[in-house]
Amino acid sequence: MNALELKGLTKKYKGFALDGVDLVLPKGCIMGLIGENGAGKTTIIKLILGMIRKDGGSVSVLGQDIASVKEEIGVVLDQVGISGCLNVKQVGRIMGDIYRNWDQAEYERLTKKLRLPENKNFKEFSQGMKMKLGIAVAMSHRAKLLILDEATNGLDPVVRDEVVQMFSEFTRDEEHSVLISSHIVSDLEKICDYIAFLHGGKLLLCEEKDAMKEKYGILLCTAEELAGLPAGAVMGKKESAYGVEAMVKREAVPDRELLPVELEQLFIYMVKEAER
Ligand code: ATP
Questions:
Q1: pLDDT tens, position by position, 90-140
Q2: 71 and 30 share a domain?
Q3: How confident is the model over 40-52, as pLDDT tens digits?
Q4: Are 244 and 162 members of one domain?
Q5: 186 within a domain of the structure (yes/no)
């Protein structure tokens, strides 16, 4: 059973269409959803959570309909929905009433680890503190799947590093999986097993991260050399007065030395190519 299966997922807004997205997140894995502003990341997450109605396709969460597995999903959206007049302790008490599987000891461990103040009210929290509390709550009710929309936004680099490590530790249990969207590609590069590139509502690519990095490389060459490469070898290119930097498929140019490609570069090249 997969943690998530999206088939032909479609949603139409005026001027935007999420266009038949197919995605599979195997159990025990972390998938990073990368896309520019307005690419459709939040739309996908809201469709998975049943917060908006789909126009086509299907969504299966932990092998079931989302309504039957809500308790097993830990969610962090860009706005953390906690009442402003509550402090960390009070949030813990309320969540204990809401979630059947609330783990108070884990909540206390995480809020301590994330250095959240015990007696300050939520409305007095900084944006980063609000995010940290949302993450602590999402990870304290024995969820099997975490769905995180830009959950590292607003966190400083040290905390971001701690938080992404927490997500990574979460998937040590093979029953646990994570879907995380972020603009901060370096965070995703550190922890994700699978990467999905989304652009203008279309899925450009969804692959295992390591396979993706093995499949492509950067070739530094001249414009003449580039023109002589086999058809389909070049995924994208940047030309300058000094020569050409091209993202190529390794298998198409086996005799050339290539530089390793970073995820961010790969994404930028693919988006530019898709726009051409
Ligand atoms: P960002 O990184 O900026 O958060 P995103 O990839 O999460 O972007 P979405 O929020 O999914 O993007 O938005 C995708 C597109 O859907 C955008 O063009 C947006 O304007 C449109 N959209 C989202 N919600 C609505 C809505 N309720 N009504 C109309 N259009 C909408």
A1: 999 999 999 999 999 999 999 999 999 988 999 999 888 898 999 999 999
A2: yes
A3: 999 999 999 999 9
A4: no
A5: yes
Ligand 1 within 6 A of CB of 77? no
Residue closest by Cα to atom 26 of ligand 1: 13
For 192, the token pair is 């994700």
What would the two tokens of residue 265 be? 């570069």
CB 125 within 8 Å of CB 105? no
Count of CB atoms situated within 10 Å of the CB of 252: 14
**Residue-number span of the structural domain to which 267 is assigned:** 212-275
pLDDT at 49: 95
Start-end of H helices in 192-262: 209-215, 223-227
Q: Percentage of residues in the chain with pLDDT exceeding 90?
A: 63
Question: 115 C-alpha vs ligand 1 centroid, how far in Å?
Answer: 33
CA of 180 to the centre of ligand 1 (A): 17
Number of domains in the chain: 2
Label residues 99-131 b or e (16+ Cβ within 10 Å = b).
beebbeeebbebbeebebeeeeebeebeebbbb
CA-wise closest residue to 148 among 191, 207, 91, 98: 191
Yes or no: say if 202 and 226 are a contact pair by the CB < 8 Å rule.
Answer: no
Contact yes or no for 178/171 (Cβ under 8 A): yes
